[in-house]
Amino acid sequence: MVDLTHFLKKTLRPRGQRAFLSSIKKDNPKILDVGCGNASSVFLKTVKPNSMVYGIDVGDFNQSDESKDLYEQYIISEPEMFAQSIQNIDRHFDVVLSNHNIEHCNDPESTFRAMVDRTAIGGHLFIATPSLNSVDFPSRGGGLFFYDDPTHRHPVDLMKLFQSESHRLECRYYTKSAKPFFWWVLGWAQEHTSKRKNQIRLGTWDFYGYESIIWLRKEAE
What we know:
Shape: globular
Helix content: 25-40%
Strand content: 15-25%
Number of helices: 9
Number of strands: 7
Strand order of the largest sheet: 3-2-1-4-5-7-6
Largest sheet: 7 strands, mixed
């Protein structure tokens, strides 16, 4: 049942974080989770049970004793030192993740550069962030318009970030506005109710194309 659930979630969101991790052939990767709130280590260990997970964040966001125990190293950084704290980690990683974190950073460009520096040659990066278009979305349920979240700094252009380091990186996949078909249809079917009740419902993000996603591979130091 666990394998079937994993397969369905990966298939229905073919460019999401689960699908990205499943595309990594190494069974025991070293993973750096940048912005590791919401007990994400539990999810990572479910998809890659033999991985070594390192986490860095600016505070304990919905963590538990269980989730913190799953990290090889768990780092809390001052926000203004976030990029430098990533640089200070004394190792390289097979996988670096930033799932809806970089838009919260004081300096997303320096944070991205630090993430690339900490990625091993041949290693992979996954970044998801609100689409640039989200500044024009309606405010709904506290989570559709970019600035509904008061901790969001500025929208981040993932393609510009990639281009700034393209001498070191290969882009495996990019979308400015992700709309996976199944979830888009579900969002379309629920849009009237979502709008009437001012709620984010299953598929609402996907109907609007709320996420920008990029998959990268590091080719050179």
